[in-house]
Write a structure and sequence with these properties.
Helices cover about 40% and strands about 15% of the residues. β4, α4 and β5 form a beta-alpha-beta unit.
């Protein structure tokens, strides 16, 4: 795995290099600034697999550098681990919105740092598999993917992949700056769209729905991901999450606006189910993410706002959706 580590502090760069090398990562390139990083990316003979960026650097900071890297097609989904002394939520949110996939605060210990690098390595592998699956869906000769299967969604502010969402939750739990909550949104009619449309059209509709949900959550500091089966998982500070009733009315109105969500292959109107908010339990470990499963399970308690002549189907389990 080829790593580019960027920090304006020479001692930190030396520490990163020594730590990574000691754990078997010997293909490491160091840069002292954002500008230096872009030069080394440009002349690299082979692409980098993982990036490690400091946030606070003179000139181009790590957040701007992340945005610049994300503009490169080859690195649109590459893992970016932020390494910084800034642990305020505002910095963390800005980093994730810019495209970061994980976050480590200084001073860091070796175990924590290497855990993050291994997670980045795993995330990169998952992204490659997802890209291969998406490419297969785009080929008409291939069989349509399962409705329970997540699909890749890009370039929506506030939307992150499932793996990145998990990283964000663990960081928020570790910081203990506020109480976080998670809730799930299900759009039942997406199953009809999946059945009656092409794989490309289904991906377009899911992307439109994700953008509507992100727009409704603007100001709540929440992140959204699509986990398959017509279910979107949302995580943010409990104090700023919108009221379910208000959000449901907004979503139904916006989802049925053809200028916002358009499906050419299947004529349908959309309804929305929103489960109750679930939160981590007291003294729960930072890597215990079962409250995300509870958020999805809460969908079983809610009623469909528009049945459209078909019986209610309860949402499947979080783990089952990802096992498909």
């Amino acid at each position: 795995m080829k790593i580019l580590a960027v920090d304006d502090d020479e001692l930190i760069r030396e520490l990163l290099f020594a730590t990574l090398e000691a754990h078997g990562y010997d293909d490491v390139v160091l840069a002292e600034s954002g500008e230096d990083a872009l030069r080394k990316i440009a002349i690299a003979g082979t692409p980098f697999d993982v990036f490690m960026f400091d946030i606070q650097m003179p000139g181009m900071d790590g957040i701007e550098l992340t945005q610049r890297v994300r503009e490169m097609d080859i690195y649109r989904k590459s893992p970016v681990v932020m390494i910084t002394a800034m642990n305020q939520k505002d910095y963390i949110d800005r980093a994730f919105l810019a495209g970061a996939t994980d976050y480590v605060t200084k001073p860091f210990d070796t175990t924590e740092l290497m855990t993050r690098i291994r997670l980045a390595d795993r995330l990169q592998s998952e992204m490659r598999r997802a890209a291969m699956a998406t490419a297969a869906i785009a080929r008409p000769e291939k069989q349509k993917g399962s409705f329970a299967q997540p699909i890749a969604i890009e370039e929506i502010k506030g939307y992150v992949s499932h793996g990145v969402l998990q990283n964000y939750v663990m960081i928020m739990k570790e910081q203990k700056q506020f109480s976080i909550g998670a809730f799930a949104i299900r759009v039942p009619e997406l199953e009809y769209v999946h059945t009656g449309s092409s794989p490309e059209e289904f991906a377009y509709v899911v992307t439109d729905v994700a953008e509507v949900i992100s727009d409704v959550l603007v100001g709540s500091q929440a992140f959204v991901t699509y986990i398959g089966s017509g279910i979107f998982l949302c995580v943010g500070p409990k104090r700023s999450l919108p009221q379910i009733e208000t959000m449901q009315d907004q979503l139904v109105s916006m989802l049925n606006d053809p200028d916002l969500v358009y499906c050419e292959d299947v004529a349908t109107s959309f309804s929305v189910q929103i489960g109750a908010v679930a939160a981590p339990k007291l003294l729960e470990r930072r890597d215990d993410l079962r409250f995300l499963e509870r958020a999805v399970e809460n969908l079983k308690q809610c009623q469909t706002t528009e049945r459209l002549g078909r019986p209610e189907r309860a949402a499947g389990s979080f783990l089952a959706a990802h096992a498909a």
